[in-house]
Amino acid sequence: MDYERVLVCGAHPDDEVAMAGTIAKLSGRGVQVFVLIFTDGCEGYPEPELRERIVEVRRREQDACDRILGVHRRICLDRPDMALENDKDTFLECLRIIREIRPDAIFTHGPYDRHRDHRAVNAITVEARWQAGEPVSAELSPPWSTPHLYYYRGVLSPLPKVVVDVSETAHKRWEAMAAYQSQHKLWGRTKEDLLREAERVKKSGERYTETFWIAEETVFSDFPPRGL
């Protein structure tokens, strides 16, 4: 799986942190990692006084996260948090982005999740990945069929899994979480806690992995390489 470009889809700012080690590993190998965030995170304020500033705060946090993980480009659709809908405009914008980027793989939310926005992103991206390869909506660039589709969270059914060794980049997850300071109260951790954990993981010499589920719509043209 010699990827050149991948697209990571998340409902909210910070959802991509779930696969931070893999993002950092891919970007370190020269893969262009694009992150598509659907909502503006406007409901993610832990204190009332942050309400009017939270979108701006989370945008700065995303910029910091991109520098940590080596994200090539982040795209924000800025739909309202907790109100993401699978409407035509959002669907076509996702389709257009897929055709523009022409990724070798898409990583997205799985179908099982308590959060409505996560479920909406799953529905939008799975169908947009299919429709992007069809001869429809021709004004949105030529069709592009993304070969591989993975879920990085929200999976209950027994799908095939890919377990990726991220031992060398696992600490990046904690560094990225540290950058999202507006969410530290939600996570019950301070910036100092997270950076200490990043340093511990970096020096531990332990093996760390991240798991991805191969989505039902993915069809491989051959058996995976030996030793994968």
The share of residues in helices is 25-40%
User: How many DSSP helices?
Assistant: 7
**What is the 3D shape?**
globular
Q: What class, by secondary structure content?
A: alpha/beta
Kindly, what is the distance between the CA atoms of the first and last residues, rounded to a whole number of angstroms?
Answer: 9 Å
- Mean pLDDT over the full residue set: 96
Stretches where pLDDT is under 50 for at least 5 consecutive residues are none
* Major sheet description: 7 strands, mixed
Count of strand segments: 7
Supply Rg. Answer: 17 Å
How much β-strand is present in the residues?
15-25%
Strand order of the largest sheet: 3-2-1-4-5-7-6
H-E string: EHEHEHEHEEHHHE
Keywords:
228 residues, alpha/beta
Question: Overview of this structure, please?
Answer:
It is a single chain. With 228 residues, the chain is of the alpha/beta class. 36% of the residues lie in helices and 19% in strands. The chain contains seven helices and seven strands. It has helices at residues 20-28, 54-69, 88-101, 116-131, 171-179, 184-187, 191-204, and strands at residues 5-10, 32-39, 73-79, 105-109, 148-153, 161-165, 209-214. It has a seven-stranded mixed sheet with strand order 3-2-1-4-5-7-6, sandwiched between helices. Helix 2 runs antiparallel to helix 5, helix 3 (88-101) packs across helix 4 (116-131) and helix 5 (171-179) runs antiparallel to helix 7 (191-204). The protein is globular. It starts with a strand and ends in a 14-residue tail after the last strand.
